[in-house]
DNA sequence: TCTTGAGCTTCCAGCAACTGGAAGCCCTAT
DNA sequence: ATAGGGCTTCCAGTTGCTGGAAGCTCAAGA
């Protein structure tokens, strides 16, 4: 199967699929004309990767997860560990963003947003801590 | 004032300050020996930038905010607009992360995390949607 | 005075994860 | 024969720095 159809089926842009081959996440065969020839297993892998990426896993995590997926002797504890670490990172990011949100929304609420130059947002940014 | 002291005072790495000069956010003078010579106003600007960055504003937003800060004829509505747009982006990111968190934490909870290969996390990643 | 070490300079490369574009081959249909 | 769409590679750019190498400057100590 050519890259265009794979792109549709796996839900990934062709560019991304080529990139994933570049970094060794998939290894499609090649036809005589030089076109990539994807097997069902390649498409399956790509869909797996796409889904893992929507969970926010890094490419390296994706590589690990894919390896585990293909390893019959894996222990679910290994998978769980990767997922938990990622979950912790997500939590931290949410906390960061929430703190940004809270500070900033206070400032936005305090700003008149009119034609006058006076602005608590700028005042806060400029303040000496 | 040399870059080292400015770095401490503004709370930004020297590398970052040089980078900010590169992209035109600050324009320190130069001493005869070629060293950057920062005025108080430069330090003030850098601290402003540092604080804006902790709020998660992009560099381009920071540039805009700095311009507004220095523009006596600004209207606070302009500042508020930038901040509100950023706030909306933050909200969106939080929503995304929360959705990731929710799905993933369910899967993590469902995973035994033992020595056996069976794993609902991998099962989910591999499923056909 | 010479040397040593810290601090400064520039420039180049690399991170993550793609994305866009150019130049050019391949295949099918008219 | 030619037009088009799909495929190929390679290079550059995105964001916001960060690390490192090579080399100049300055102040202090032997």
TrEMBL record, chains A, B:
Pfam families: MerR (PF00376), MerR-DNA-bind (PF09278). It comes from the Bacteria. It is found in: Cytoplasm. Keywords: Cytoplasm, DNA-binding, Transcription, Transcription regulation. The keyword rRNA processing does not apply. One of its GO terms (biological process) is positive regulation of DNA-templated transcription. CDD domains: HTH_CueR. Residues 1-68 form the HTH merR-type domain. This is HTH-type transcriptional regulator HmrR. It comes from Tritonibacter horizontis. The lineage of its organism: Bacteria, Pseudomonadati, Pseudomonadota, Alphaproteobacteria, Rhodobacterales.
């Amino acid at each position: 199967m050519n890259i265009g159809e794979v792109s549709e089926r796996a839900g990934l842009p062709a560019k991304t699929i080529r990139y994933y081959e570049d970094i060794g996440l998939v290894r499609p065969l090649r036809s005589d004309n030089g076109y990539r020839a994807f097997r069902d297993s390649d498409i399956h892998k790509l869909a797996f990767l796409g889904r893992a990426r929507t969970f926010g896993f890094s490419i390296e995590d994706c590589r690990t997860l894919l390896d585990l997926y293909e390893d019959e002797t894996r222990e679910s504890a290994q998978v769980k560990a990767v997922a938990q670490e990622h979950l912790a990172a997500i939590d931290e990011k949410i906390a960061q963003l929430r703190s940004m949100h809270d500070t900033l929304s206070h400032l936005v609420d305090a700003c008149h947003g009119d034609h006058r130059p006076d602005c608590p947002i700028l005042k806060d940014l400029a303040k000496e801590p």
